Amino acid sequence: MKAKNIVLAQLDNGDRGVEDKDMEPGMETLRQELGLGFKEVNTRIDETRREVTARIDELRKETAENFKLVDAKIEKVREETANNFKLVDAKVEQARKETADNFKLVDAKIEQVREETADNFKLVDSKIEQVREETADNFKLVDSKIEQ
């Protein structure tokens, strides 16, 4: 089959060997130009790749720096929050102490009022007893006057 194709190709082309020889320098020039074009394109691709790689490295550095800044800000906020909690805890503790002191004062006042009330009841009891005695004495006087 190959031989048949070769014969047909020769019949179809005729004797173009001379034309082929004339075209060879042009073909060689075209090959060289294509080769140079490919080299140029490959050089541009390499340059672009290097630029992109450099830009990616730069962005990675920027991103790392930004993460460091964000981490520093987060740490600062954590410290501020911890300090705020400490302040709040101190205020709560102070409020507890004040409340305890106020309860102690209230308890002392209640105890004082109890004592005063007890003293007042004792006075009232003694006055009632005194009035009873006076009343009893008065009844005795009245009885003695009635009997006379």
How many H/I helical runs?
2
Output mean pLDDT: 88
What is the N-to-C succession of helices and strands?
A: HH
Unreliable runs, pLDDT <50, ≥5 residues?
Answer: none
Task: Estimate what percentage of residues fall within beta strands.
Answer: under 5%
The main sheet comes to: none
Overall tally of domains: 1
Instruction: Name the shape in a single word.
Output: rod-shaped
Could you say which structural class the secondary elements and strand pairing correspond to?
mainly alpha
Give the terminus-to-terminus CA distance.
179 Å
Oligomer: single chain
**DSSP strand tally:** 0
Gyration radius, rounded: 59 Å
Helix content: over 70%
Coiled coil: 42-98
Keywords: Coiled coil
Verbal overview:
This protein has 148 residues and is mainly alpha-helical. The protein has one domain (2-147). Helices cover 97% and strands 0% of the residues. It has two helices and no strands. The longest helix has 131 residues, at 17-147. The termini are far apart.
Please outline the helices and strands.
Elements: H1 2-13, H2 17-147
Task: Give a short synopsis of this structure.
This protein is mainly alpha-helical.
Give me some keywords for this one.
148 residues, mainly alpha, 2 helices
